[in-house]
Structure to design on (189 residues):
């Protein structure tokens, strides 16, 4: 919110943070012509996403500053599709850019889009998000996959955990605990 100019000041991060956050959300909502209720519902979330997209430039071919469109092409080699059985989800591209910026090293995409045949060949689940351009397998050279996963989760909720089991990468107990806490209705004290 503060990057968009709506008054979140991390120096005031204390017990009244929620009040400050709600004021920032209300100001953003009012500026966008939304009902200023201070809650991030569907309309506010969509507007925030649109605002965030506006600061990332997409080339005419769908490339972003750190990712070329062809990095996400299905790797069936043209045997069963033209490489793009779907388009990449813009929200995912935004999250990948955020991850790349947080890591400050190149992020290598090992699997983006998949046609149904390629998905089956690599053992993907029948309704894999790869089929719809909503998933990407990746790594960052020199950074442990568990570190990448933790940063991805902390940075906009990008999750690659569903693939860790398939890859045989153990999920650290503490990471599982954090995920359980994030999913709880009432966070622990």
């Amino acid at each position: 919110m503060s990057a968009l100019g709506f008054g979140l000041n991390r120096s005031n991060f204390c017990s009244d943070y929620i009040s400050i956050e709600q004021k920032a959300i209300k100001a953003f909502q009012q500026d966008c012509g939304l009902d200023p209720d201070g809650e991030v519902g569907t309309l506010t979330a969509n507007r925030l996403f649109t605002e965030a997209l506006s600061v990332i430039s997409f080339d005419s071919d769908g490339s972003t500053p750190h990712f070329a469109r062809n990095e996400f092409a299905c790797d069936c080699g043209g045997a069963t599709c033209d490489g793009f059985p779907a388009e990449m989800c813009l929200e995912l591209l935004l999250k990948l850019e955020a991850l790349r910026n947080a890591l400050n090293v190149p992020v290598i995409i090992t699997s983006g889009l998949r046609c149904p045949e390629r998905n089956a060949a690599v053992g993907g689940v029948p309704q894999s998000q790869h089929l719809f351009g909503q998933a990407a397998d990746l790594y960052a050279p020199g950074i442990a996959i568990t570190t990448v996963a933790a940063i991805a989760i902390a940075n906009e909720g990008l999750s690659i955990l569903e693939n860790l089991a398939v890859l045989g990468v153990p999920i650290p107990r503490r990471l599982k605990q954090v995920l359980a806490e994030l999913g709880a209705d009432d966070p622990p004290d």
